[in-house]
Amino acid sequence: MNATNRTPGASIDIRKASKRYGKFVALRDLDLSIRPGEFMTLLGPSGSGKTTTLNLIAGFTEVSSGSLEIGGKSVLGLPSHKRNIGVVFQHYALFPHMSVGRNVAYPLTLRGIGRAERDGKVRHALEMVKMADFAHRYPNELSGGQQQRVALARALVFDPPLLLMDEPLGALDKKLREWLQLEIKRIHRELGTTFVYVTHDQEEALVLSDRIAVFNGGQVEQIGNGRELYDHPATLFVGRFIGESTVLRGKADIVGGDTVVSIAGTKIVASGKISGHAAPVILLRPERAVLHRPGTGVVDGENRLSGIVEEAIYVGSGSKYDIRLKDGTTAVVRSPLGAPEFAIGDTAEIAFRPGDVTLLADDASADITLT
Amino acid sequence: MSALPQTDNQTAGGRPARRLNLRDAGWLAAPAVLLLAAVLVYPLAIIVLRSFSEPEPGLQNYIWFFGSPVNRAVLQRTFVLSGWVTLASLICAYPYAYAMTVVGKNLRLILILCVLVPFWLSGVVRTLAWVILLQDSGVINSILRGLGLSPVKLIRTQLGVVIGMTQVLLPFMILPIYSVMKGIDTRLLQAARSLGAKPWRAFLQIYVPLSLPGVYAGAIIVFILSLGFYITPALLGGPRSTMLSSLVQNQVLSLLNWGRGGAMGVVLLVATFILLAIAAPLMRQKHTQTRREK
Ligand SMILES: Nc1ncnc2c1ncn2[C@@H]1O[C@H](COP(=O)(O)OP(=O)(O)OP(=O)(O)O)[C@@H](O)[C@H]1O
Ligand SMILES: [Mg+2]
Question: What positions does the domain ABC transporter occupy (chain A) (predicted)?
Answer without folding.
Answer: 12-242
